[in-house]
């Protein structure tokens, strides 16, 4: 019977019959069409002066294209701030396609990003144009550069200049006359200014790596020295009749990292002042930096290579001298703080720490470094959304009762009981863009099988002011499908450990019968699978499998980034793959006692970390799992990158047994079932390198 399940998975990969009813799902409907695509909105931006928000809409003008439109929250008044008719370059008959946009601080100039190209994960290279709304002048900046080569263009706070990166160098251009000043001159493949290397982009999301000073006179930037980083060679066999090699500088666990430092340079050009740092630049990280709410100092997050110590340093922009203001530590690892916000008087900033066992918000005194707890209690916050000094509130995302859901709360800055603002009728996954004055928010809501709705709401009463996205067409499409029941559950696997899960059943489910089970797994610290959020085509794909006569189940083991406390998340430190496998197997043993589960027909599949977990379960528990589909796995943890793998496992030189025991390849000889490995040779993140070794085990 396990062979039948394996062949069924292959059939699903190859395709289903073309002639299908509207109530039936097929691969063609899911992946060869946009039939189940969600309605799009945005990108939306709150204006800095608090007067409203802007978004991109299809233009109703004869020019076609897109307009950037402003809305007043209170009245709903609509104003076209940038018309597509004003975005037609000289010599062209078509307006620019708006892939992204930003505003000058005064709102008079729009920066349009277009004609982009992908750099690893995101399209971060492209062309930039600036429209002066008063004069209607449209100018391309960086016209000297190769097309689609500019990165991260942003207007100075005074609105007179724009800065950008091209070919790993930083430039400033005067908007009035187009005069260009090159600020750095040493940019190359290995000397990287104003952006970062592969691993910092991938794991710290550090891409835009320079910052204007508030007075528009200086730019602070990161510089990376990637000389000596190991190169992984990907072979492209598909784009021409001859294959060619694509080298990627990729530091694997335990190997040499790029050296990283931060400097300050005048916007007029000249010598860079480097922040003084006596550490080994190849064995620390500087994942976050910005101006310290003034034009004289920088605030820098300085992490050691093990990522268990984060020093917040204040650096003098003129001298480069730096001092440590405060230090956060953890026995396992720390996350970067992405929600650092300053109070209006610049005397305090927000911080997130797990130092008391929960992920809490603090106010840090700028002068002394003293941390004052804001969110006190046995609950985690996930992000700080807004600090409202005038009203005395801090707004944050959290979930106190269900680890798979997300809600908006607020708490007095001076401390006190949190108030949930998201209505109980909006159970599921909620995200917010909160206005600067905390009076309004663009609220997105979805649940496991309910598509996203987006509304403009007032705060704190959370009343809907304007409906922005309803997804009526998608809801109608879903309503026409024949889908089985889905539900969430919490599973007691013994010793006081409870694991969250979901299950999808076929529409023809009969509790008196037994069904084979397909587990969908991830299991690593980067992500959760058991979330009450609309799953899109992947969720529908699982429903399609269920309709073939299967149960589809997913379980979150210990170590996933759920809001269940520091002990839950960090319990797997140094044992990636091992503890997660124990939990997944314990869950299966409990589930196998359910009367409608056929424990002799158990399959499992996952992607990336889930691909690795699939291998682990097939190799470690061959008596429990009979069929597996592993997509883009890491069979040997030494093959993955420094920042991710060392964060959770330490250095391979210092945790030899942990790396060996946690790697699926160590246990491959135990395989008994049918295993399908799917891996692309062009994967720059999880390399195909490990796939042949894992494949050869069967």
Give a quick summary of the entry:
With 698 residues, the protein is mostly beta strands. The chain is 14% helix and 36% strand.
Index terms:
698 residues; mainly beta; Rossmann fold; 7-stranded mixed β-sheet; 5-stranded antiparallel β-sheet; 11 helices; 41 strands; 14% helix; globular; disordered N terminus
Notes on the structure:
- This protein has 698 residues and is mostly beta strands.
- Among the domains are: 249 residues, Rossmann fold; 117 residues, no CATH class.
- It is 14% helix and 36% strand.
- The chain contains eleven helices and 41 strands.
- A seven-stranded mixed sheet has the order 35-36-38-37-39-40-41, with helices on both faces. Strands 13, 14, 15, 18 and 19 form a five-stranded antiparallel sheet that branches. Strands 1-2-3-4 form a four-stranded antiparallel sheet, with no helix packed on it.
- β3 and β4 form a beta hairpin.
- α7 crosses α8.
- The chain starts with a helix and ends with a helix.
- The N terminus is likely disordered.
CATH superfamily of the domain at 2-35 and 481-695: Alpha/Beta hydrolase fold, catalytic domain
Beginning-to-end CA distance, first to last residue: 18 Å
The coarse silhouette is globular
- Strand neighbour order, sheet with most strands: 35-36-38-37-39-40-41
Work out the radius of gyration: 26 Å
* Low-pLDDT sequence parts: 1-8, 10-19
- In quaternary terms, these chains amount to single chain
Q: Given the helix and strand composition, which structural class is it?
A: mainly beta
- Strand content bin: 35-45%
Using DSSP, what is the number of strands? 41
Mean pLDDT: 94
Determine and state the CATH class of the domain at 2-35 and 481-695.
Answer: Alpha Beta
| Major beta sheet summary | 7 strands, mixed
Helix content: 10-25%
CATH fold node name of the domain at 2-35 and 481-695:
Rossmann fold
């Amino acid at each position: 019977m396990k062979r039948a399940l394996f062949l069924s998975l292959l059939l699903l990969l190859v395709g289903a019959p073309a002639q299908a009813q509207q109530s039936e799902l097929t691969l063609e409907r899911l992946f060869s069409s946009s039939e189940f695509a969600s309605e799009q909105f945005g990108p939306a931006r709150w204006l800095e002066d608090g007067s409203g928000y802007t978004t991109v809409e299809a233009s109703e003008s004869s020019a076609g294209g897109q307009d950037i439109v402003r809305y007043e929250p209170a009245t709903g008044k609509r104003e076209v701030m940038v018309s597509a008719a004003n975005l037609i370059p000289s010599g062209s008959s078509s307006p620019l396609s708006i892939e992204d946009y930003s505003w000058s601080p005064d709102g008079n100039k729009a920066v349009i990003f277009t004609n982009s190209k992908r750099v690893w994960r995101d399209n971060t290279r492209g062309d930039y144009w600036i429209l002066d709304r008063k004069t209607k002048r449209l100018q391309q900046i960086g016209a000297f550069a190769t097309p689609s080569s500019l990165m991260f263009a942003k207007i100075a706070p005074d609105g007179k200049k724009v800065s950008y990166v091209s070919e790993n160098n930083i430039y400033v251009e005067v908007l009035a006359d187009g005069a260009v000043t090159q600020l750095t001159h040493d940019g190359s493949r290995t000397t990287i200014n104003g952006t970062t290397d592969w691993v910092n982009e991938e794991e710290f999301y550090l891409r835009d790596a320079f910052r204007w000073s508030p007075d528009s006179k200086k730019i602070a930037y990161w510089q990376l020295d990637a000389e000596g980083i190991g190169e992984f060679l990907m072979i492209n066999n598909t784009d021409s009749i001859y294959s060619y090699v694509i080298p990627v500088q990729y530091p694997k666990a335990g190997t040499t990292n790029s050296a990283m430092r931060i400097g300050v340079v005048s916007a007029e050009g000249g010598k860079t002042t480097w922040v003084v740092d006596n550490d080994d630049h190849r064995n620390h990280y500087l994942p976050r930096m910005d101006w310290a709410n003034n034009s004289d100092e920088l605030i820098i997050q300085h992490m050691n290579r093990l990522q268990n110590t984060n020093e917040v340093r204040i650096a003098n922009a003129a001298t480069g001298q730096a001092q440590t203001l405060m230090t956060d530590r953890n026995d396992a690892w720390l996350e970067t703080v992405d929600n650092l916000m300053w109070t209006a008087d610049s005397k305090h900033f927000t911080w997130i720490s797990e130092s008391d066992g929960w992920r809490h918000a603090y106010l840090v005194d700028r002068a002394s470094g003293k941390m004052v707890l804001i969110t006190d209690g046995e609950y985690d916050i996930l992000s700080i959304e807004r600090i409202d000094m005038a009203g005395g509130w801090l707004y944050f995302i959290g979930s106190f009762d269900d680890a798979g859901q997300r809600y908006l709360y607020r708490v007095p800055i001076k401390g006190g009981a949190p108030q949930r603002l998201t209505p109980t009728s909006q159970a599921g996954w909620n995200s917010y863009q909160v206005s600067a004055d905390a009076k309004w928010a663009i609220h997105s809501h979805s649940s496991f099988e309910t598509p996203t709705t987006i509304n403009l709401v007032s705060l704190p009463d959370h009343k809907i002011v304007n409906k922005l996205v309803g997804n009526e067409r998608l809801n109608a499409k879903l309503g026409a499908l024949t889908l089985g029941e889905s539900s969430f559950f919490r599973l007691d696997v013994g010793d006081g450990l409870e694991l969250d899960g979901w299950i999808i059943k076929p529409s023809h489910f009969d509790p008196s019968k037994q069904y084979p089970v397909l587990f969908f797994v991830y299991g690593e610290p980067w992500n959760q699978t058991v979330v009450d959020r609309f799953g899109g085509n992947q969720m529908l794909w699982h429903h399609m499998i269920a309709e073939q006569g299967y149960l589809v189940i997913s379980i979150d083991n210990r170590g996933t980034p759920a809001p269940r406390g520091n002990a839950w998340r960090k319990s797997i430190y140094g044992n990636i793959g091992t503890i997660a496998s124990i939990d997944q197997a314990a869950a299966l043993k409990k589930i196998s006692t359910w009367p409608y589960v056929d424990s002799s027909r158990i399959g499992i599949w996952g992607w990336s970390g889930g691909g690795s977990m699939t291998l682990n379960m097939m190799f470690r528990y061959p008596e429990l799992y009979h069929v597996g589909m592993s997509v883009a796995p890491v069979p040997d943890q030494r093959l993955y990158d420094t920042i991710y793998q060392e964060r959770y496992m330490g250095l391979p030189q210092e945790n030899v047994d942990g790396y060996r025991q946690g790697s699926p390849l160590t246990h491959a000889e135990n395989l008994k079932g049918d295993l399908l490995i799917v891996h692309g040779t062009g994967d720059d993140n999880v390399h195909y390198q490990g796939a042949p070794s894992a494949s050869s085990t069967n």
